Amino acid sequence: MATAASRQSDFQAAPTAEELIARARAMAETLRQRARQTTLDGDVPAETIAEMAAAGFFRILQPQRYGGYEMLPDVFYEVQKALAEGCMSTGWVYGVLGCHPYQLALFDDKAQQEVWGDDPATRVSSSYQPVGKVEKADGGFYLSGRWGFSSGSSHCSWVLLGSIHFPEEGPPDLRTFLLPRSDYQVIKGTWDVSGLQGTGSFDIVVDRAFVPEYRTHKSIDGFLCTNPGQKENDGPLYRLPWAQVFVRAVSTSAFGSARAAIRAGLDIMNSRVSSYTGKAAKGDPLLHAALARAVAEVGEMELTQRVTLQEMIDHARRGEVVPMERRALFAYQSSTVVRRMADLIDDIVKLLGGRAVYMSSPIMQPWLDLHAARAHIANDPGSRAADVLATMAGAPPSFNYL
Predict the structure, then answer these.
(1) Whether 128 and 197 share a structural domain
(2) What secondary structure letter does DSSP report for 158?
(3) Which of 289, 328, 348, 362 fits a disulfide with 265 by CB distance 3.0 to 4.6 angstroms?
(4) What is the domain extent for residue 129?
(5) Torsion angle, alpha carbons of 367, 373, 375, 376, to 10
(6) What is the pTM of this model?
(7) For 218-240, what is each residue's pLDDT tens digit?
(8) Which of 100, 122, 144 is the last residue of a domain?
(9) Which residues of the chain have pLDDT under 70?
(10) Which CATH number fits the domain that encloses residue 55?
(11) Which pLDDT score, from 0 to 100, does residue 232 have?
């Protein structure tokens, strides 16, 4: 089991935020070279996962008590953007696996000990679909079911699974259940999709596994910031609403992919001459406008992300609750990012002619990945709009994933 001294030694050796971001940017070209094979294999290479771990990326949101860096989320998201610019599938997997140390830090410390006590580098995948069957038992629950979309699951030895417990009295109880690899199966061959093919988002099957109470995390605790893990992990980082951290983990890779697509669009524009008209694409004012608009709006969305994160961090540092109307707005803003970026790249692709539709075109995979990312529920602004208006009027949100 890792000792307090070894964890402290790990912490003292922590790189700076600037060093971590620089490492991610330096890795982007390697990921770009691997991107096609990652797509064909349907999973991020083990080599890439090992390199990200060696670079310290999975420790950014992990508690110092367990050898993590306990940095603020803006560092985590900057690393994710840089990785996704090389390969969005890799950036997506990093975003999902890399944010799980944050949620695990909110669990009872006994659960944290089980996962990180012997190996602080242990990774955890997830599927938050509330589709499992939950049976109450002495000291915990029995969990059964099949979950889809567990990104990066082949590289993990634990999993976080969403399910709803329906008690005999009281409202439904949405929880996340934490299980070791011995209690579930990863079903490969289930991820056959049009974009983000390299995320290895396989199915998870559980056959009536016992999950002790301390290895569950109540959604309402994440919503109210009254998590059991905050007793030991009492820094400002872990006072943020869990959902606000997670929703950005599945939208932020779009920044890197959009930048890769814009760069590809510029390269095609500068070399393409229409075989029908003989006109050079670099003289097309409509293409110029589409590219310029994409550059400007991606930058605007990035600025919005930074400002909203800073506002929440400031509240956390002061020990204040983030006002509900701000949380609803921030979640809505995050939910629009992927769709807006997909639309921006759509406008570029349709002006690039037949060359752009080949899979060998550098713009095609980022474009497909952005459209696949739109399907995640956290990237659906339609599910968030009503709460923006309700909370502005002083009413409670319709659900507590804010």
Answers:
(1) yes
(2) E
(3) 348
(4) 124-217
(5) -170
(6) 0.95
(7) 999 999 999 999 999 999 999 99
(8) 122
(9) 1-12, 272-278, 280-281
(10) 1.10.540.10
(11) 97
